[in-house]
Amino acid sequence: MRVFQSSYRDRTGKKRTTRTWYAELRDHRGRLRRLSAFVDKRASEEVGRKLERLVSLRSANERPDATLTRFLENLPAKLRRQLARIDLLDGSSVAATKPLREHVENYERALTDGGATPQYVQKTVNRVKAILDGTGAVFLSELTGGAVSRFLAERRANGLAVKTSNHYLAAVKSFGNWLVRDRRVSEHPLIHLSAMNSRADRRHVRRPLEIDELRRLLTAARSGPELHGMTGDERYWLYRLAVETGLRSNELRNLTRSSFALAGSDPTVTIEAGAAKNRKAATLPLRPDTASELRALLANKLPSAGVFRMPRPETIVSLIRRDLANARAAWIAEAATDAERERRIGSTILSYRDDDGRVADFHALRVTFASQLLGSGVDVRTAKELMRHATINMTADVYACTLRGSLSEAVKRLPDLSTPQTEQLRATGTENADSVLALCLALRGAIHNIVVQQPAIRTADDSDSQPLAMTGTYGDCGRMKMNGDALRTTCEKAPPRGFEPLLPA
User: Which CATH number does the domain housing residue 118 bear?
Assistant: First the structure.
């Protein structure tokens, strides 16, 4: 290896020497190579020695060590391209010497070419760039697990939620996976990092809307003014379809008239793969009554026409917050007394945030869909398919929430374990009437009407007994009447409560 300055003649014919020094050496194939170095002779000699070391490693088919890799990373881009052109640097070595920002630009292009949505691409790339900026990593050798872990820990200490921290980690690990697949690196630099348990630090927990809340929300939306370009009727159908199908905001945004098959006994709505979160097309069933109303709504639309004129994604939450506020104001105004009005004002019914800090944003309608499915007795596997989740745990643990009264209703469905003595008392008609009332109240909601008859009560002078007649209204049990000579209960099942909002057309 030798280092020299090249000579040349200028326009006047005078002999001159280049400012740049050159390193001349034989490569791993024995060919003589001349490479431009620096204007400083000592720095150029150092480059020559490093290149000799690189040639010996390349001849032995070995990778550069950490010291040599850092040296190559700091070489001028022009010299790195020369080394790659003469095959002194293999693909992964070239990648190691490229700034990470260049890799991120290539990664962004690969995501777009792979069919990812613009929103996903932008969010993922921004998270990767935030980690690179936060760790100060410029080259691949500086992107280490320790640096990423420290950066995310500092962000969590400053208020970043664990779930959001996991999203940042997932983005940068996805970037690392692409580097391996594209053969830019041989090993994933962050493969050993694991996500944290986000359940212990949930910041944005959504709540399901109760049936009465949902019906009032729909009423308020339909009768409300235009918001962000959407009429009240459009918002009514947007909310209703979301809560009856579990469709996400972006999926609803991409629905067209041709997405619906409303004829026949099994109406459906189809989500195209490009609009679905999991990039898979899906066909979901619709309620027959919903399909009947939609036929009239969509009758005059062209097949390619969009169903909803939805605002920007970041504005969607303001729609439902406004309609919730209007529904809550109307509910409070319906209070018959001042005391009842104060009670309603103090409650969180129809509020955006409840007592437990859970929120009712647009995605909460999907939570409502899952909660109502399981609360209605649908098995969890069927609910998972309707929600289009990858795992049952996602459906049961994350989306399905307990509705008001569902725990007590579940206990009431347990079998009757009354003792034989109690059964005998019932058969002979000597059980206290209070027990009958207790039975009625215990089955509240399942019994529509109950009639109780009891033997006549004997008077103090032991004369003819006088029948005891007792009437009264006890909650949902209806009228209770005591008369006659035998204890008898007659129960009528209450009509099932519907899931659909019962609103005027």
Answer: 1.10.150
